[in-house]
Structure formats: structure tokens, C-alpha cells
Design goal:
Number of helices: 3
CATH topology: Cytidine Deaminase, domain 2
Helix content: 25-40%
Radius of gyration: 16 Å
Shape: globular
CATH class: Alpha Beta
Number of strands: 6
Largest sheet: 6 strands, mixed
CATH architecture: 3-Layer(aba) Sandwich
CATH superfamily: Cytidine Deaminase, domain 2
Length: about 160
């Protein structure tokens, strides 16, 4: 039998005010995107904003459908929009926010989004930072999507 430990490194900022101006702006853009979400069924509005290596910003929000699970999450909406416009693009950072989050803990991406974020890192050959924010509260910063999914599935499993 073998035992191991998984360590996840993160930084918790007291609020978005503690971030750089560029990252603070990204959190604000994610918040604005969340307010445009289409979430009539869950009422759980999520916004995401990403910044590409060339400085371009792309936002996304969740888009629900009465035929669950046909909707799409904010993180994947932003990623797909960015990669559709610039297939070889590199995402440097993504901010994620849920305006109606309860408590002082930012909402983390769901499992499907974690996998999509990890796939983007694989696709671009390097990590993207993640900023998970609570309006008026803390921001948790991760250096890589791998920190969300330490025992992940990726393309290396498909190539024997």
C-alpha cells in the first residue's frame, strides 16, 4: 500500500482591491458578465472574464436551457469564444465570480469546467492563473488549473 499527499498552493487576497489594476479590472468584467447571464432556472448567475497573452479580454456567462444539462457554464463560454476567435491563443488569467455567492468563500468551477480549463492549459502548453472572487470579499488565486484537479485526465492517457 502507498500513501501520498496532494498539496495545492493558492493565495487568498482580502479583496479585489488587493489585486493589480489589470486583475481588478478582469474581476469587474467577470462581475458585469455575470449580471448578463441567462439563468432563469437555477438563478445562479456566474461570470468569467479572461485575458489573452495579447491583452485581449473575453467574457462569458452561464447560459441555461430548460433541457438540463444543455446549458453551458461561464468559464467554458469564455474559453470557447476566445479559442473560436484565436485558435492558437494563450489565456494568461481568468477571473470567475458569482455575485450572489453566500458566505466568504469564492465559488470554484464545476467538474466539467475544471476539465476544460485543464485542457486549455494542455492546448496552450502552459498554465493560466485563476482568480475566484466573492463580490466585496476575498479572491483566491491559483497559479494553474492543475491546482483544481490534481488527479486529472488529459491527452497523455490517449496516446499509448
Amino acid at each position: 500500500m502507498k500513501h501520498g499527499t496532494v498539496t495545492i498552493n493558492y493565495t487568498e487576497h482580502t479583496s479585489a482591491d488587493a489585486l493589480s489594476a489589470a486583475d481588478r479590472h478582469l474581476v469587474d468584467e467577470a462581475h458585469a458578465a455575470a449580471l448578463r447571464a441567462y439563468a432563469p432556472y437555477s438563478r445562479f448567475m456566474v461570470g468569467a472574464a479572461l485575458r489573452m497573452a495579447d491583452g485581449r479580454q473575453v467574457t462569458g456567462n452561464n447560459q441555461e436551457n430548460a433541457s438540463f444539462p444543455a446549458g453551458i457554464c461561464a468559464e467554458r463560454t469564455a474559453l470557447h469564444a476566445a479559442m473560436s476567435a484565436q485558435a492558437d491563443g494563450r489565456v494568461e488569467v481568468m477571473a470567475i465570480i458569482v455575485p450572489a455567492a453566500k458566505g466568504e468563500r469564492p465559488v470554484a468551477p464545476c467538474g466539467i469546467c475544471r476539465q476544460a480549463l485543464l485542457e486549455q492549459e494542455f492546448r496552450q502548453g502552459g498554465p493560466m492563473r485563476l482568480l475566484m472572487a466573492v463580490p466585496g470579499g476575498p479572491v483566491v488565486e491559483l497559479a494553474s488549473a492543475k491546482d483544481l484537479l490534481p488527479f486529472s485526465f488529459d491527452a497523455t492517457f490517449l496516446n499509448p
